[in-house]
Amino acid sequence: DVTEIEEKEAQAKQEEQIMKEQELSNLLHEKRYLKALGLAISLDRPHTVLTVVKAILKEPEGRRHLEENVVRLRKDQKEAVLAFLVTWNTNSRNCHEAQAVMETLLKHEAPESLLHFSGIKSAVESLLPYT
To answer: Could you name the Gene Ontology cellular component terms for this entry (predicted)?
Structure first.
């Protein structure tokens, strides 16, 4: 019977998730946005990433801080953010944040580099009607 083992594994995953959520909350409170962005992306939480982006943009010189943080993300993290911002861009409440992140990506990534992002074609097709 493996039920007990599976229950323990599920409980351990749930506890780990709670710990990561608490860590994310602490990072936001401490304004450590780069780590917060990385953690939210690794948790695959588009809304949380959006919350971090909004918090950055509320800061004085928020655009500059957003640029500094997005530029420092790894390629796979930038791909994830691109996928998230496609969804954000379709909602008028979140489109400004999506456009800010997209501007940063377009400004700091070479076109050849962007072509190697996974899902770039569908992202561009989805962004065009709303941009």
So the answer is: 90S preribosome; small-subunit processome
- HSE (CB half, 13 Å, CA atoms) of 38? 12
Whether the model pTM is above 0.85: no
Count CA within 13 A, CB hemisphere, residue 24. 21
- Which uninterrupted H or E stretch holds 94? none
